[in-house]
Amino acid sequence: MEDREGESHKIGRRRAAGWALAGLAALCLAAGGGCSSFKTPSEDAIATVNGTEIKVKDFTVKLRNALTLAGAPAALPESNLEAIKREALGELIEEKLMLIRAEKLRLEVTDEELKKRVEEIKKDYPGDNFAQVFGGEKVDYKIWSEELRKRLLLEKLVDQEVNSKITVTDEEAQEAYQANRGRYYAEDSVHVAQIVVPTKEKADAVLRRIQAGEDFGKIAQEVSTGPEAAKGGDLGVFTRGVMPEAFDRVVFTLPEGKTSRVVKSPYGFHVFKVLKRERGHWIEFADVKDRIKLDLMKVKEEKEFRKWLDQLKAGATIRIDEERLRQVKLEEPRPAETRPEGTRPAPGKG
């Protein structure tokens, strides 16, 4: 259950800010309002969602970020620039719809919840790296943290409104397993360790020490030049085609527990040991059931999220000041800022 909830929470993060856009025209049609002749009540707004304004300044920030990803606006065809503008506004409209819904449900993110997420993000920035991001004029921590709070609120909303209402039964997982049986075959695999040295003479000396009964792992730690030497030469588990073909020919013919002859490669001279062999076999349903259920859950949540968001749009009054949208122009986008994970458009995405 913990894995299920954890994965669902991650999906909620992606949904909260990484939703796909169906196009601004579709937003107008779904809302039942016209976009062509509407004028926002105030000069600093570009659109309204149920009467709540989307500010021009927020739109320009969103647009600048989109253009930074797309490249210099001067190099973009006018049609592409227009599409990026509409996509940026479309994201803000969908975000505003969800924030209005969250407010109606009286959802909030406590200071303690925000602090907990910040601490999680800090783990990806060892030492003083996290603090350095906010040094000088790079990123304003207060603005960043409030943006993060908003993302957490959207996660909470999607989890409550969508993800918590979805289940996948064992029967559904079993059907998916049978329908995709070919995916659940494990090929032959070997768990391999190696000792690699720069010369044939050193490799022959290693081989003699092994044949004399010395421990393979200890020799690897002592003389091997490979990065895995500290782990006793342990390379991990491989199927055919992952390692160079010359290595495959050796390790897939060695019995378990046996050591190879000296093998030459561009990296040096190698001695391999097969720690364990696993013959190809069909993976039982019980061994992949949880993974299948998570995969099915992602598919269901994607479908239900889109349905839920479409319902929000259908019940909303969305109005866009087309003239003001056309008037928005930006200079060359400023260099992208270095920001912690939590400030990306979709926290936890990917």
Q: Can you give a write-up of this model?
A:
This protein has a four-stranded antiparallel β-sheet, sandwiched between helices. A three-stranded antiparallel β-sheet has the order 2-1-9. Residues 7-36 and 333-350 have low confidence and may be disordered. It has two domains: 2-168 and 287-343, Triger factor/SurA peptide-binding fold; 188-279, Roll (Chitinase A, domain 3), CATH 3.10.50. Helix content is 51%, strand content 13%. The protein has helices at 2-18, 24-31, 56-70, 78-104, 111-122, 129-133, 141-161, 170-179, 200-211, 216-223, 245-251, 285-314, 322-327; strands spanning 45-49, 52-55, 185-186, 189-197, 234-239, 263-265, 268-278, 281-282, 318-320. With 350 residues, it is of the alpha+beta class. It is built from 13 helices and nine strands.
Essential attributes:
350 residues, alpha+beta, Triger factor/SurA peptide-binding fold, Chitinase A, domain 3, 2 domains, four-stranded antiparallel sheet, three-stranded antiparallel sheet, 13 helices, 51% helix, elongated, disordered C terminus
